[in-house]
Amino acid sequence: MSLQDVYIMMNMTVLVLVCIWHAIIPQIAADWGLELAHTSDVIVLSVLGSIFIVTHTAFALWIAVRVGYRLLLLVRLVLSLMLFLHCLKCLLSWSYQAPSSFWEGSFKR
Predict the structure, then answer these.
(1) Nearest CA-CA partner of 2 in 59, 69, 54
(2) What span, in angstroms and rounded, lies between the C-alpha atoms of 54 and 61?
(3) Cα–Cα distance measured from residue 87 to residue 92, given in angstroms and rounded to the nearest whole number
(4) What's the chain's average pLDDT?
(5) Contact at 8 Å (CB) between 51 and 14?
(6) From CA 26, how far away is CA 37, in angstroms rounded?
(7) How many helices (H) and strands (E) does the chain have?
(8) Domain spans of the chain?
(9) Rounded to an integer, what is the distance from CA 38 to the centroid of its chain?
(10) For residue 58, how many other CB atoms are within 10 A of its CB?
């Protein structure tokens, strides 16, 4: 299971918890009063909101790190390719030069 699958499952879990909570809160209001229902609704909203924000922040950071790492690898690959092409150009432009007249003349009698 990849991290994206975990992210989707976590969001689905938060969504299910919100739906369950919205089903429970009217029963709390009917049995124990609106004051307790309002207080517990604020607490649960804070908890579920925090889970939502932490999940999305962690996923955004993970994406940023992963994209940054791949971008770094791409830049290194491009620089290596540019160095290789420069070396290849130097090798192809190199030509053999004949010995100078000094060397040719020194072996004559």
Answers:
(1) 59
(2) 11
(3) 9
(4) 84
(5) yes
(6) 8
(7) 3, 0
(8) 3-94
(9) 39
(10) 13
Q: What would the pLDDT profile of 12-30 be if each residue is shown by its tens digit?
A: 988 898 899 888 888 888 8
Residue carrying the six token digits 């791949």 = 70
CB neighbour burial string for 13-43, b if at least 16 within 10 angstroms, e if fewer:
eeeeeeeebeeeeeebbeeeeeeebeebbee
Q: Which residue has the tokens 């130097």?
A: 90
What does the alpha-carbon distance between residue 88 and residue 56 come to, in Å, rounded to a whole number?
A: 47
Q: How far apart are CA 45 and CA 49, in angstroms?
A: 6
Q: Residue 76 above 90 pLDDT? A: yes
Q: Give me the residue label for tokens 């089903």.
A: 23
Residues sharing a CB contact under 8 Å with residue 29, sequence separation 6 or more, in sequence order: 36, 37
